[in-house]
Amino acid sequence: MTGLLHALGARDHLVVAPILLPMLAAAAMLLLRADRFRLQAAFGIASTGLGFLLSVLLLVQVHQGGPDGSTAVYLAGNWKAPFGITLVADRLSAFMLVLAHGIALGALVFSTARWQRVGVHFHPLFQLQVMGLAGAFLTGDLFNLFVFFEILLAASYGLLLHGSGGARVQAGMHYVALNLAASSLFLIGAALVYGSTGTLNMADLAQRIPQLLPGDAALARTGAALLAVTFLTKAAAWPLNFWLVRTYAAATPPAAALFAVMSKVGLYTLLRLGTLCFPGADGNLVLLVMGLATIAFGVVGLLASQRLAYLAGYALLVSSGTVLSAIGLEKPGLTAAALYYLASSSLGASAFLMLTDIVERWRNGGAVFAAYQQSREAPFLGRDLKPLRGIDLDEEQDQPTGQTLPTATALVGLAFVMCALVLAGLPPLSGFTAKVALLTSLFNPQGLGHGVTDVSVGAGILAHPNTPGIAGWLFAALLVGTGLACLLGFSRAAIRNFWAAQGRGVPSLRLAECLPIGVLLAACLALTVLGGPVLDYFEATAGALQRPQVYVQAVLQQRAVTTP
Amino acid sequence: MEAILAIAIGVVASTGVWLMLRGRTFQVVIGLALLSYAVNLFIFATGRLSVDREPVLLGPLGATLQHYDDPLPQALVLTAIVIGFAMTALLLVVTMALRGLSGNDHVDGIHAPPGPRDDPAAPPPPSAPSALPAHREDAGPAHDTPPKGPA
């Protein structure tokens, strides 16, 4: 396929394709009547599927470019780098593109079963959100980053409000207001950076910021801090994360599954700008502290949640916090492990958010809204903390003996267990590999089997020059403790939803709903099986992030195409 | 000129922040709009303040920076204005929908946020508009009238 693209002369335009494709698809869908759901879904799946293939192609192309990776640069207006619009694909952006497209494709297939029909224009909005995501990952320019942020946010407002209803509008109000305020901060930050450096191109910024006069440097750092606040809001770092759980629980499940990637955009931009433009800034300590606080907050929320969607939201917070603290600890190995963790937890959380829908509908006997939601009760415990009807948590409940478990129930239960294993980080799935990688690179940056071979392992860790320090130990403790807390939370949810469930029929499963969940979980399995090559890729990614000059050179030396 | 512009931006921004922190949706919308005006003025000012300078190259003037204004912030601010305008319009729609659904223009709707467990002292559902909780800022009596029709 690479050869075919090359023959068509389209290979140079591969970088811009993930942005153009969803944009054209969205525009084409708007020409269709709003109730042609099937046709729109076909358009959407074709576009996102093609986008996924192109992203994989881009990833392969970037990865084959040697140890530093070939950085694919696209000059959109054919102006040389500091002037025109630049799109850049390196290992990090290519990986984020693949992850986003994969999850988007799953959510899109899931939506065709029912959720696309609860409102109008689901598919165009979905495509525009994919476009915003792709643009945010690919842009090499601070102001275009703002524009793509606004595109993905505007689409996410529409997706959040899809289906309407009190809870969604209520959550939407908070979400829109919060993000408008955050966008204002983004603009102030970008303006400060421009005012002090005279450029918005990220590669150019990386060159100019170290050469600034002290006064201008202070302004640029202020701008960077304001930008970081915006990105931390998007990444849902404590104390900027109170919006996330209710928003994601209120959104329709396929939209929420896509939002699980959206919160990773903040992490991506922090990593990109932090390593490229502001390396060695003392903001890393802030990231570390906020990350640890986010993990703690998420764990408490996990233990307190009764609703499955809230459980998923808090699991996302834990994952955001883990990645943030890993970035804040400033070790290349840890960054690589954090990227692996990001992939695993995003896949797991998206699958879980979609599974939530199936489990909830099973519990409600097919109704989208449960009785407890109408009467504004919690799902399992009443206000006096007594279990509600239909749930028997007693040990001496009369068990129906000799009855085989229906296949559908077993499948749903199995998917639940797999999601829980991925999100809690227990063996044998990718969550465990991710945590092992994180802990290994925290305690022994040289990698397993190196560095501490000459002394006994325990003493070696304590006496090693690369001891993790207080923050590192705290991170390790939280990482391990989170696993236990997640397990408690998910076990309780499983007991309530599966074990103690009485008088329910068999969950109605549809292929369009099971397939994406199955494929996303299979991707987690693949991440585990292919752990070695995948971690190698992320180590190369983290290594390239440590050498920003490669990125800078590639962007600034890209030549404009001469007209024949 | 710099001092006047700085004070103006500061006043507009602080007004915007204050309004944004109020409890009524309309005040929040106006607050966000004011904040975006302040931000737009600020972006404009990052191109440095000057009078009577050309933004694009003109033949007779020398090609040095002292004759020209920076056109980039003006382009940026145009984009920011358009995006901010669209977002404010969207927020207004959400505000109207929330007003229609909750019968109240408080940013949190009528109740405490619907959580897994409600506050036992939460007021009854929106069927009884007379039981609206009294918020300190609703001094104006016209705020809490129930909606006349579907929104």
Could you describe the 3D structure shown?
The complex is a heterodimer of chains A (564) and B (151). By secondary structure, chain A is an all-alpha fold. Chain A has a domain at 2-278 and 305-364 and 506-556. Chain A is built from 22 helices and two strands. Chain A has helices at residues 2-7, 17-31, 37-63, 91-111, 122-138, 142-161, 166-197, 202-208, 214-235, 244-250, 253-276, 283-304, 308-328, 332-363, 371-374, 407-424, 430-443, 457-463, 469-499, 511-529, 531-546, 548-556; strands at 72-75, 86-89. A two-stranded antiparallel ribbon of chain A has the order 1-2. In chain A, α5 packs antiparallel against α6, α8 crosses α22 (548-556) and α14 (332-363) runs antiparallel to α16. Chain A starts with a helix and ends in an 8-residue tail after the last helix. In chain A, 55% of the residues are buried. Chain B is mainly alpha-helical and 151 residues long. Chain B has a domain at 1-49 and 71-112: Orthogonal Bundle (Helix Hairpins). Chain B has three helices and no strands. Chain B has helices at 2-20, 25-45, 72-102. In chain B, 26% of the residues are buried. Mean pLDDT of chain B is 75; it is low at 116-151. At the A-B interface, α6 and α7 of A face α2 and α3 of B.
